[in-house]
Design goal:
192 residues; alpha+beta; Aminopeptidase; seven-stranded mixed sheet; binds coenzyme A
Amino acid sequence: MERFSARDLREHDAAWDPLEGEALATAGAEYELLAWTGSCPEETAGQLAVLMSRMSIDTPTGELSYDPEQWDVARLRNVEDTRQRAGLTALVAAARHRGSGELAAYSVLQLTPSNPWLADQDDTLVAAGHRGHRLGMLVKLRNLRRIRAEFPAVERVFTYDAAENDHMLAINVALGFRPAGYDGEWQRALTA
Ligand SMILES: CC(C)(COP(=O)(O)OP(=O)(O)OC[C@H]1O[C@@H](n2cnc3c(N)ncnc32)[C@H](O)[C@@H]1OP(=O)(O)O)[C@@H](O)C(=O)NCCC(=O)NCCS
């Protein structure tokens, strides 16, 4: 079961400053935030591909089961090129661990020119070894603030989460996302 949630960006965001303050205090000075639009900087692309592979493994899927995906820089560049050719804009926020240089977290928001009032939440992931530092909150908030500042026509952000994804849903609810629908998914196992 997937929960579909929406955040109306025209609504007041009184919770965002305290949430960001608490998240920054928890993450401390160990992490730095990065942001880009479209193409990932070359020096970060390999690490981003590793985190993108983890999306297919770490995300709860209820009773459905999917094959793990393999991502590398070529596949990442292919997705970026396809988005660009389709006229889509991807805003990416990420967090890097200063001590090790490891990319620890990323989140992607996608904008479609045919629906300028809408932003779609794509991947969000924190690498397992870096969880518990509120990096998910920080990267999501960074992107939401960028949307507000750079794309004032956007009125709503949509996101889809597995109904059992408590950790992601807790962050989304705190940021003001509200349930807007559910969909059920079925999987048929094919026997040879
Ligand atoms: C959702 C997610 C980004 C949150 O990570 P995060 O920002 O590190 O989470 P928080 O810092 O808010 O963690 C809050 C608490 O939950 C724990 N926690 C977070 N994610 C957890 C997980 N997947 N499994 C178990 N515990 C988790 C943290 O350790 C922390 O515990 P503490 O308060 O006792 O220290 C992360 O769980 C994740 O990457 N999940 C897999 C990818 C995913 O599901 N993406 C969403 C797809 S729609």
